[in-house]
Amino acid sequence: MSIAERVAGSFRDPAGHIFASEGRVLRTITHRALEQFQAARPVLVDLVEKGRLVGFSEHKPEKFGFDKDHVAVVLEHPVIETWSFPYEWSFALLRDAAIFHLDLHLELLEQGLTLSDASAYNVQFVGPTPIFIDHLSIRPYRDGEFWLGHRQFCEQFLNPLLLRAYLDIAPNAWYRGGLEGISTTDLAKLLPFRAKARLPVLTNVVLPARFQKGATSDKAARQDLKKRQLPLVGYQSMLRQLRNFISKLRPANTSATTWANYATTTTYDDEETIAKKRFVADFVRESKASHVVDLGCILVTIARFAWRQVPPK
Fold first, then answer.
1. pLDDT digits (tens, 9 = 90+) for 60-111
2. CA dist., res. 93 & res. 239, Å (int)
């Protein structure tokens, strides 16, 4: 086997890194992170079985050419074929990912674990279903600790959603230009008073923005958070309230568009629709395609029909 190459985007976590080798996805775990991984392992296995965490198998580091003095164990993961990023997601997908992240966090807290961060990049989609991919961000919960990932969650999940929900501004281009998300201090300047008056916005955007403005540095702000104490019940309540608020968010200006009723206003008659369905079904069957990409609204219903009739092999 050729020497594994570290994935360029995997550089921040001191507990381990992602490598690629001959089409295989590997995650190294350092000796300093081994105890944390072993403590979380039973829950990780359970989450994999539930389809909420990407699967893994464990290997000795020598198998892939890693130095056992630096690497304690190597995890191999199945390949997620379709990869996407938060700044590409629609409002609905970003909201689903945010709710999934909060639900996962609540489930972990019930089992004595927590998340060390709240990066939206730790969520991927398998079809329409979100799945968590960062095994090493799951660690044992320390009694009384504050949610250190709150700011990151807001900037990468909540703030983009609020931008669309209250200002009717699609966040994608802004998000793509600042990969850490949308700054809470920037969003607080833009939101109208009616939005700021809502308790979830006040507590998760307005007040944190004032706190960040008054802090001498981001490092000082993080150190202050580490000193705070938050009872577990308060931690869970914070997550649940945020979840309930996000689940009710809807994009502004959802009035009907030219394409809103396209499926029912198309000029095709019944025979033409049947012929199109047959054409797509025949193509999928004869080509034995493993994937179908819909490049136009015209094939949405037809492609879905064909996919049900002729599932990929």
1. 999 988 999 999 999 999 999 889 999 999 999 999 999 999 999 999 999 9
2. 19
The confidence band for 166, taking pLDDT boundaries of 50, 70 and 90, is very high
Q: Contact, 54 vs 131, CB < 8 A?
A: yes
Among 71, 62, 79, CA closest to 28: 71
Structure tokens at 276: 């199109």
Q: Any idea which residue has 């464990």 for tokens?
A: 58
**Residue holding tokens 């985007």?**
9
Q: What is the pTM of this model?
A: 0.81
Higher pLDDT, 287 or 228: 287
Which residues are within 8 A (CB) of 111 and not within 5 positions of it... i.e. 6 or more apart? 43
Burial 222-244 (b: 16+ CB within 10 A, else e): eeebeeeeeeeeebeebbeebbe
Extract the tokens encoding 158: 């909540």
Percent of the chain with pLDDT over 70: 82
Whole-angstrom CA distances from 88 to 79, 92, 127, 160, 230 are: 20, 12, 15, 12, 34
Extents of the domains making up the chain? 5-77, 86-247, 262-309
